[in-house]
Amino acid sequence: MPELLNALNAQLDVHAHDVQLVDLATEQEWTGAQVKRAVADFRENFEAHNIQKGDVVLLALGNTAWLTIIEQALWEIGAIAHPISETTGVVEIIGEFEDYQYAAALVSDDIAARLTKQTVLLPEAFKTYLYKGHFYRFDGEPKRFIADNVEEQSALILNTSGTTGKPKRVGISFKKILLATRAVTWSQNITAEDHSLIVMPLFHINAQIVSTVTTRINGGQLIVAPKFSASHFWEIVAKYQITWLSVVPTIINILLQNEKSRQQFTALRDHIHLQYVRSASFSLPAPLLADFEQTFGVRVQEGYGMTESTTVVSINPLDNAKIGSVGPVVDTDIAIYGDNGVTYDSHVKGEIVLRGPRVLEAYMDPKDGILVDGYFRTGDIGYFDEDGYLYVIGRVKEIINYGGEKVAPAKVEALISQIDGVVETAVVGLPDDMYGERVTAVLHLATENIVEVNAIIEKIQDHMANELAKYERPTAYYVTGDFPRNPTGKVLRADLIERIWGRHQNGTN
C-alpha cells in the first residue's frame, strides 16, 4: 500500500474516537473510526461494481465531506479519482468517457437528472451505509492506467484549462501528493491541533491537497462547506474553532464588504481563533491585504503554486512576509526563463519555470512546448528580488482568471459563434476588483438594430447557460464594428481590452 494511505489510516487509528471530518451541508460528523468504516464500505461497493486497479472514476459531487472518503476508497483499490465541477455540462462529461474510456462515474442529483437521455453511461444501483449515490458504468471497455511502482501510481486526475478550451489532464501520483503534504505542513506548520475549513472547490488542487489531504495526514479536523457564505463565515469559524483556511482574494474582498459579516465578526470576536488565511490563485492587492488584517486581526499568507506543481512552490512566511510577493521557494527548483535562457539572477523578469519531484513532466495527453531545458513552463511572468522572494506580475497566455477559475477564451468564443447573427467574437478578461478578471464577450454582429442585437445577446446567454459552467459564462457583452488586428489579421487582445475598458469606464456598451 502507498505510504500516503498508510499515513492516512494511521491518523484515523490515532484519532479513532475524535471527530475528524464534518460536513456542514448535512451537519454530519465522523470520528476516525467512522471514516475508516465508511471508506471500507465504499471500497466494497466499488469492488462489487468491478472497479479495479488503474480504473478511473469520474466524481462530480460538489463540495461534500463524502468526497475524501470516496477518494480514499478508490485509492485503496488502486483506482484513480477524477473530481470535476458539478456544473460541468453533460456534453463535456460524455466527451470525457468517449475520449478516455474511464470506467465509471459517481455524480450529484443535478447531473444525474441531466444524464437521462444519453446512452454512453449506464446507471447502476449504488448504496452504502448512510450514502446513496448515482453510479454510472461506461458502456465499453475501460482503459486502465497502472504504474510499475505503487508510489508512482496515479491517485488523482485533475483538469487544468488550456488555451483551446479543452482541459489538460494532470495525473498526480501518491508520491507527489505525499511530498506536497510535507511541503504544506512545513511551510504552514500544520499540526493535529489545527481545524481547517474548506470553502474552495474540491475539484481544484488547493482544496484537494493543501486543505484536505494535508489536514488529514496531520490528524487535524476537516470541516467542509458546500460553498462560501459571507453571512455565515464567522459563525462557522467560531463554532468549529477554525485555525486556518485557504481562500482566494475574492473571498477576502467579500468579507470586508459584507456588512453582516463584519457585524458577525464583532459579535463573535472573543470566540474566534483563526490564526491566518492562505490566499492563492491570483494576486491579492496590497491595500486589500492590509485592510483585512487590520479589520479582522487575521494574518494573510500569500503563496504560489498550481496543479502542475502539485500545489505550493513558494509562500510568504508569516513572520517575515513581503507584501506583493508570493515568498521564497518551497521544496522546488524555480528559475526565470528569458531572452538569455534560464537564470536565477535577481530582478530579471521572464517566464517562471519549475522543476522537481512534484513538478509535471508531461500531461496525460501529449502537448509540445511545456518544457524548456528540463523546466516546466508556467506561463506566468515574474522575477526574484535580492532576498529570493518571488513576484508574479502577469501571464504569458490569454487565459482569463476569474476568481481563481481559469477560463479559456477560445472555448467560449466557439460557442458564441454558433449563434445566428454573430459575425465574430473575442472573449477577454476585463479588470475586476472582486474577481481579478471578469469574462467579457466583444461581439461583431450582422445587425445594428437594437431590438435584434438584444435578441441575439439573449440567445447567446441561453446557450452559455446550457453549455458552460457558471464561472465560464460572460458577465458582460460589448458590440463593436471592428477589432484591432496585427498584420496577419490576429485580434490584438491587449488593444481590445484597453478599448473596451475605456467604454466600461464611460458606461457605454
Please provide a written account of the structure.
With 509 residues, the chain is α/β, with parallel strands linked by helices. Among the domains are: 32-190, 3-Layer(aba) Sandwich (Rossmann fold), CATH 3.40.50.12780; 400-506, ANL, C-terminal domain (GMP Synthetase, Chain A, domain 3). 33% of the residues lie in helices and 28% in strands. It contains 14 helices and 28 strands. The longest helix has 18 residues, at 450-467. The protein is globular and about 65 Å long. The model has no long low-confidence stretch (mean pLDDT 93).
The helix tally amounts to 14
CATH class of the domain at 32-190: Alpha Beta
Q: How does CATH name the architecture of the domain at 32-190?
A: 3-Layer(aba) Sandwich
Helix fraction, binned, reads: 25-40%
Report how far the terminal alpha carbons are from each other.
59 Å
Query: In which order are the strands of the major sheet placed?
Result: 2-1-13-12-14-15-16-17
Poorly predicted sequence stretches spanning 5 or more consecutive residues? none
Most strands sheet? 8 strands, mixed
